[in-house]
Structure formats: C-alpha cells, structure tokens
From TrEMBL:
InterPro entries: Diguanylate_Cyclase (IPR050469), GGDEF_dom (IPR000160), MASE6 (IPR048435), Nucleotide_cyclase (IPR029787), Rev_trsase/Diguanyl_cyclase (IPR043128). It catalyses: 2 GTP = 3',3'-c-di-GMP + 2 diphosphate. It comes from the Bacteria. The keyword Cytoplasm does not apply. This is diguanylate cyclase. It comes from Pseudoalteromonas haloplanktis (Alteromonas haloplanktis).
Length: 340
C-alpha cells in the first residue's frame, strides 16, 4: 500500500484548492474586466484583480508542489471578503450576493469541519447584516424571498457539515484499518513505515527496539491460540504503558518493534531493560491459566539508515540475545561514543 494514500484528505484538499484557484482566478479576472468596462465598479474590480492574482500565484505554487498551510485559509478569507464587499458596494440586482451560497461548501472542502462551522456562521451573520443594511430594496421586498434565501443557505451549510463529518469519520476508520494490528491495537508494519518516513522529522535521537517473546510458540501449542492471543493483547498493552513516550508496532506473530527518542544511549538501554523486566514479572490470566514468559530485546540507534537497514541491524542484536540464552538485552550502541 502506498504510504501517501494515508494522507488522502491532505492530497484531496490540495487538488481541490489547486483547481479551485485556477477557476476562481479566471472567473475573478473576467468579472474584474466586466466591472471596469461596463459597471464602473472600480473598488470591486480592484478587489477582484487582487483576488485573481492571489489565486494564480497559489495555483502556480501548487503545480510546483509547494504547499503551505496558509494557502487554503487565505483563499477562503479573500473570496469571502470579495463577496461581502461586492454585496455592499454593488446593486443587489447584480446578484453578487448569491455567491455566498457556495462558500460553506468551499470552507468544508478546504478547511474541514472545525473551520467550516465557524466561517459559515460568521459569513451568515455578516452577509445578513450587509443585506439588511441595504434594505429596503425592491428585490428583497418580499419576506418570503428573504426567508427562502436564508433556508437555502442553512441547508447547504448543514449538508456540507454532515458530509464532511461523515467523510472525516470514515477516513479515520479506514486509516485505523490500514495502520493498526486488529488483534492487539498496536501499529502494524505499514504504520511503522508511515511513522518512520512521514511523521518523524528529527531522527537524530531515534532508537529502535525489537522484542521477541521467548518460546511463545509453546503457549499456542500447549494452551491454544485463544490463550496466545490473550497474551499478545496483554503484552501489547504493557509495552504501550511502559514505553509511553514512543510508538509500539506488532511486526510478526510474537515480535514487536518500538520506536522512540531518547536523550542518550544509557536512557535507551535503561528503557530496554525496563521492558524486559516488565515482561518477566508479568503474570497473565487466560482461561483459568496463569502465563509468565520472558522476552529478548535488540536495541539500535538510527545512523542515517533506511528503515529496512535499521530493522536488520536490530534483528542481529535480537538474535545475539537469543543465542545468549534469551531473556536479555543486546545492543551495538557505543556508550562512550554516544556520551562524547
């Protein structure tokens, strides 16, 4: 599975923003020319020219794959300003105020539910204030017309809110299905790759712990897989509690990988020893049976390797622990060099 697919919301919003900027840029430029040559609304035309230039600039940056967090919020705020100012300055018969109905969709598409509800509510208050200020007007002489326009806006807002909420929820569920081990709730291999490649920005103090449960196959063979599954769930929880500042991944049947940042090699090795002792002193009740087992741990520090190389290095240390009789921690970390 492509790791980038896990950021589908971000990618979707980028594409929506890019093509919306192109559309708004062209449309705003056309309106600016029309308002200059025909309507002589110079202030509105000036705003539209500025908005068009902004849209074209952001479109070009997105084509170059240069995305900034402020692009979406700036587009939303600017188009809102243009519509509010246009509604205030231009005659209502021009119908510029009708563009406000599209803005809740834009807010939710580009910014999500949290910003969507705030901006939609703010726009409703401000646009209503502008329209009320311009009354009486022959185009709004009917109370029924004003009421219908209000309800149309609210319906569009509610639909946008419900749709974005459901989309975000399903996206979260799909991401969890892709990233979490269904038995233990720990991350899976894809989750580990995503965390290593995307989420960790500074790897200078990153350590990888590879943990294998000693003689775990005997538990499955003697007591059954139900008991074995219970043991795995309990130990995954134990790892998350003990390794609270890092991430826990299940990468094999009875093998776990943990990643975290530590100030020193001594701190990392002390954590590895805590993990080993936590397993050795843990007694798990399952189907009336008390299970106690041990774990072997391999620890390595990130040294500009890719993830596969880092895991292979940790695996070597893990097998050293097994060859030494299991229930041990092994590492190739040079404590003196680390301290220096």
């Amino acid at each position: 599975m492509d790791i980038a697919a896990l950021n589908s919301t971000k990618i979707l919003r980028k594409h929506v923003l890019k093509w919306m900027c192109l559309f708004f840029g062209l449309l705003s430029f056309i309106f600016a020319v029309f308002n200059l040559s025909k309507n002589h609304f110079y202030i509105v035309a000036g705003l539209e020219v500025c908005f068009s230039a902004l849209c074209f600039y952001i479109f070009i940056q997105l084509v170059k794959n240069k995305q900034r967090n402020w692009y979406a919020i700036t587009v939303c705020m600017t188009v809102t300003l243009v519509i509010l100012c246009g509604t205030f300055l231009a005659p209502l018969k021009n119908g510029l105020f009708l563009w406000a109905f599209s803005l809740p969709i834009l807010y939710y598409l580009l910014l999500g539910r949290k910003y969507g509800i705030v901006l939609s509510a703010t726009l409703l208050v401000m646009q209503s204030s502008v329209l009320l200020y311009k009354l009486p007007s022959p185009y709004f002489s009917s109370f029924n017309l004003a009421l219908n326009l209000l309800f149309i806006y609210i319906i569009i807002w509610v639909i946008s809110h419900v749709f974005e909420g459901n989309r975000a929820e399903f996206s979260k569920r799909l991401k969890n299905l892709a990233l979490l081990d269904p038995l233990t709730g720990a991350g899976n291999r894809l989750s580990m790759s995503h965390y290593f490649e995307v989420e960790i920005k500074d790897k200078s103090q990153l350590y990888l712990f590879l943990i294998d449960l000693d003689h775990f196959k005997q538990i499955n063979d003697e007591y059954g897989h139900d008991v074995g599954d219970k043991v795995l769930v309990e130990l995954a929880t134990l790892f998350r509690i003990t390794f609270a500042k890092g991430y826990v991944f299940r990468v094999g049947g009875e093998e776990f990988s943990l990643m975290g940042n530590f100030d020193s090699a001594q701190s990392a090795l002390a954590m590895a020893e805590n993990l080993r002792q936590a397993v050795a002193t843990k007694y798990i009740e399952a189907n009336g049976i008390t299970i106690n087992l041990t774990a072997s741990v391999g620890v390595v520090k990130y040294q500009q390797q890719n993830l596969a190389e880092l895991i292979a290095q940790a695996d070597k240390q893990l097998y050293k622990a097994k060859d030494a009789g299991r229930n041990a921690v092994f590492s190739d970390i040079n404590l003196c060099a680390d301290a220096a």
